[in-house]
Amino acid sequence: MPADESQSLDEQKSTGFVPGDALGNRFRLTLGWMTDEGMQQWKEDRDGRKEATDCARCEKNRDYLLMYSPIIRFMRQNINKLGADLHSENIRCRRCLVPQKGGFDPDYGIILCANYLRGQDKVEDTMAHEMVHAYDHLRFQAEWEGNLRHVACSEIRASTLSGECRWRREFWQKSQWKFTQGFQDCVRRRAVMSVANRPGCKDDVQAAKVVNEVWDSCFTDTRPFDEVYR
Predict the structure, then answer these.
(1) Which residues in the chain land under pLDDT 50?
(2) Which of 55, 118, 151, 198 has the fewest CB atoms found within 10 Å of its own CB?
C-alpha cells in the first residue's frame, strides 16, 4: 500500500470518520467514537449529500414568505421605498460551511444557510433579520467594515425586530428565557456574539463593550416599524 494512502487510512481511524461509510459513521458517532474533527467531517459530508434537498426546501420557504409573510412583505416594501429590492434572485439559499443561519452583503444580497434552516419559521426569522441589515445599509449608510458601532447597532435592531428573540423561541428551543429582562438579554447576547465574529473585533469583551455603548439608542429604534412587531 502506498505510504500516502496508508497515512490517509490512519487519519480516518484516528478521527472515526470514514468517507463513504454512512452506516459505520453513524454507528461510531452514536457510540462517541468520533473526535471533534471527525464529527465536523461527518457534518460536512452529510450536508454535502443533502445540499440539493436542503436548498430546494429553503427556496420553497423563501418564495412563500416573500408572497405571504406580513413581516417579510413589510420589510420588502420599506426597502423598495429606499430604492432597492430584495427578491428570489438576490436572496439565495446556499450550503454554509460554518454554523450560521444567514448573512447580508451589500453587493451580494442575502444568503440563507439552507443546511442550518430546517423550518419555515427559522427561514422567516433569518430573512427578517438580514432584511433589517439591508434596510440599515440603505437608510443609515451603515459601515460594515471597520465600524463596530454601526455593526453593533444593526445587530441589536435586527435581533429586536426580526422575532428571533420572542419568548416562545428562546424558552422552548434554548431554555434561555428569564422572565425578567429576558427579551433584552436575548438581543444583547446575540448582538455580542455577532460583533465578536467580525474581523475587526479582538474578543467578546470588546464586543460587549461596543454593544453597551450603542444599546440605549439602538434598542429603542424600531424603524421602519412603529414598535417591536413580534
Answers:
(1) 1-7, 9, 170-174, 176-177, 179-180
(2) 118
- β-pairing, 102-105 vs 109-113, is antiparallel
**What digits encode the pLDDT tens for the residues 86-144?**
999 999 999 898 889 999 999 999 999 999 998 999 999 999 999 999 999 999 999 99
**Residue 170 falls in the annotated catalytic set:** no
User: CB under 8 Å, gap of 24 or more: what pairs does 138-142 form?
Assistant: 138/79, 138/82, 138/83, 138/84, 139/82, 139/223, 139/224
Beta strands in the chain (DSSP E): 91-94, 102-105, 109-113
* Dihedral sign computed on CA atoms, order 38, 49, 104, 72: negative
Preceding amide of 2 cis, omega within 30: no
